[in-house]
Amino acid sequence: MIPPQIIDQISDKSSEGLALALASDEDGAIMELQWCNKAFTRITGYDNRDILGQRGTILIGTSMAQGDHLLIIEKLMNWEHFSVKVRTNRKSGEEYWQKMSWTPLSDPSMGDRWWLCSLIELDETPHNPVVHSTLATTISNQELLADYAEKIERLEKENTRLFEMARTVAKESKEDPLTGLSNRRHFEVELKSWIQKLQNGGTEFAVFYVDLDRFKSVNDTLGHDAGDRLLLSVAKMLRRLTSETDLIARIGGDEFVILRPLGNSALDISSLADAIVQEMHAPFAFEGKSTFCSASVGVAIATASMDIPEQVVTDADMALYHAKTNGRGRWSFFTEEMHADALATKRLVSDLLIACEKREFVPYFQPLIDASTGKIVSAEVLVRWAHPKLGLLPPGAFLETAASMGILKRIDEITFSTLPETLAEFDRAGIDLPRISINVSAGRLADPTLIHDIKRSGIAPERLTIEILESVYLERIGDVVHWTLGELKELGVTIALDDFGTGHASVQGLLKINPTILKIDRQFIQPIVEDETSRALVHSIIGIGKSLGMRIVAEGVETEQHALFAGRMGCDFLQGFHFGKPVSASDLQQRLLETNGQFWFPAETDIATLRPELPC
Prior knowledge:
By secondary structure, the chain is an alpha/beta fold. The relative contact order is 0.06.
């Protein structure tokens, strides 16, 4: 046991300022300081009498940027562990830089929630302080000029549009006809006015981008009248929460924007964002029925130091996207990290479109091995992107973005189109590759032209397996998919259900799709050597598949023991790094020539000596 005197010396002699604050259960940003060490009082300039019992806002000096303050509030409210480098003030008003860290704690015995605050005084201004509003600091001069040109072109098009509209419309309406709020056109005009005032030395302002999370479900379940009533309710709520100096606009079906001048405290901004989110958590009632429709909010600040203040709406939209992707029903403040991510995604989207035009996607092959003989029986086709600058990219680097762009079908088509010639090369070389299998996306499976493409390809149907992700099948099954599956089976193409166990499969679902092959996901195979429970689970899955007449594939076979266990338990085929990582067609040809297709010799090892208690 550590003596109390030693604990006291650590507290007194530590150069790092430490404090404990008792926090509210409902809101992590509401707290009361209960203890601090000597270093904490030395750094801040406050003594114990000044600190104890005070709110955490005592640490927010007048020199702290409102963007930094907002970010701290957001992190505290969401009980996140974080660190920031900020400029603030001591009690005397002296400015200094500090690294501030917050760690959430809990007391299981009392149920209380606490914050541990750590302060480290920095000797000089950090080389890379957190920056929230200088949007163009990461943009090169060339990109900046391009942005200015785009801005000028956009403004010219906007002026032309407004001029033509003025010629055909005698009086332009400024209001949204449903809610009475400003409409998009009036918002755009007002935004320009606010920016112009800002550039002439006026007040900085915040932009709130508000989006209803489940508005479509309200329309679908309760009808469009209920949807209109909800929009009116939201407009009324926004009027109540804002002041006369704010501007509220409805700029889309369920999208609202608020402009608010910055006050003396960042709490003016965070409190409004939090209030909107909290009020939208309440159920919405219509004609005796109720539903929930939360709201997500993105917040960004327009400052005089911004090179392109018009970007502030896009910044708020990025923050909104961040809030939605992190669970919805919350608000998020724009950071430069979001901007960098958006630029990277934009570049990836552009590169993917070019890749489709240049057909830069190439097939790689991973062997499937017969568990009883050790010989190759098939090879799964896995797509790779031959990026001209970044090299060969795995699916994880681009497939999610490709799916959001709706181009997975195109990538499937490009990959599939290369396979007939690849198989022909194997055949001409006298190399036996009995079968290939290819994953098919949901969009491709629902496309009737898939059958036509297979027929036209010249690939013998008995050499082709179509793999369907379990989650894709269960989410997207419909009449067209049923027809496609029936046609594939009629042709003689084998159907495999991939990654079994990771989605929401059921015996009824298996009966519905009736695949020939069932592939057990690697996360179930990985622990079978050491874990009895995992072996029992895999044994049950194999039993279900076998009872339905299916052949079983074990995925994720990475060791000799994995292979032996899976084979002994009844898996027909094995796939994994133990037999080789995905390789190009030429590398697979060379491997097959060298081994004559023999990847493994299962009869040489007695599995009983490895694990006698293995279930049969």
